[in-house]
UniProtKB/TrEMBL annotation:
The chain crosses the membrane at residues 21-44. Residues 156-175 are annotated as: Disordered. InterPro entries: Thioredoxin-like_fold, Thioredoxin-like_sf. Keywords: Disulfide bond, Membrane, Oxidoreductase, Redox-active center, Signal, Transmembrane, Transmembrane helix. This is DsbA family protein. Belongs to the thioredoxin family. DsbA subfamily. Residues 62-228 form the Thioredoxin-like fold domain.
């Protein structure tokens, strides 16, 4: 499917705010994977994944893309529905990104990761929520996805506590206008495996862009990390004022 309309996305940690990104350990440590603790947070470091992000892969593995193909700025947004700081990011910058996309100034590619599965009560909430969002994106389009995306963060379960069943995720989708077919897609978990596959490829590209590190929330602009995304929408104002990518 083309970039222009593709609708798609136990290691313990101490969540703590860092600068604007990389707040969680991406589980699993092997010989080639080094867990690195930094002041204020935990990041994941893989010596295998250093290089440049592949823009074609980022386009193909986005859960949803909004904005015009010829918008002067393209960003990739990496989130996990179980991540508290992603919820903060959505609350502070979510609508600003949508407004900029509607105005033709921005193209946004959403990547829904799932590395916080282990920190959910069910052990797979991040993947199931990502699969549910994919069902909504593929059937309901961008407007419905964005409403559901916001609702999933608004209703975010506590880490380690009870989280929604697939039936409850479907009911949430119904509340934002999802069809019965979409609700069935969510209830059955039909898109969970596809969401996991997209998440893994998106994570690989994110790790390459960050020199072997990865975390959420992260925003890449033309493949490079944007700083200050947890400090309100000022980062976006700065980005849009920069015409260097036009």
């Amino acid at each position: 499917m083309s970039d222009s309309r593709r609708p798609r996305v136990s290691a313990k940690y101490q969540p703590s705010r860092t600068s604007s990104r990389a707040t969680y350990l991406l589980g699993g440590v092997a010989v080639v994977v080094i867990a690195v603790v930094v002041i204020g947070g935990i990041i994941w470091n893989s010596q295998r994944d250093k290089g440049s992000a592949d823009q074609a892969v980022l386009a193909q593995n986005a859960s949803l893309i909004i904005g015009k193909a010829d918008a002067p700025h393209t960003i990739d947004v990496f989130e996990d529905f179980q991540c508290p700081y992603c919820k903060q990011f959505e609350q502070s910058s979510g609508q600003a990104m949508v407004n900029a996309a509607d105005a033709g100034k921005l193209r946004v590619r959403y990547h829904i990761l799932n590395f916080l599965d282990r920190n959910s009560g069910s052990g797979d909430y991040s993947s199931r929520a990502a699969g549910a969002a994919l069902c909504v994106a593929q059937a309901g389009g961008s407007d419905q996805f964005l409403k559901y995306h916001t609702k999933l963060f608004t209703d975010q379960p506590a880490e380690g506590g009870d989280d929604p069943t697939n039936a409850e995720l479907a009911a949430s989708a119904k509340s934002v206008g999802a069809s019965e077919q979409t609700q069935q897609c969510i209830s059955s978990g039909a898109r969970v495996d596809a969401a996991k596959a997209d998440a893994q490829q998106s994570l690989t590209q994110l790790s390459k862009a960050l020199g072997g590190n990865a975390g959420t929330p992260t925003v890449l602009s033309e493949g490079k990390p944007v700083e200050g995304v947890l400090n309100g929408p000022g980062w976006l104002t700065t980005l849009l004022a920069d015409d260097s990518s036009s």
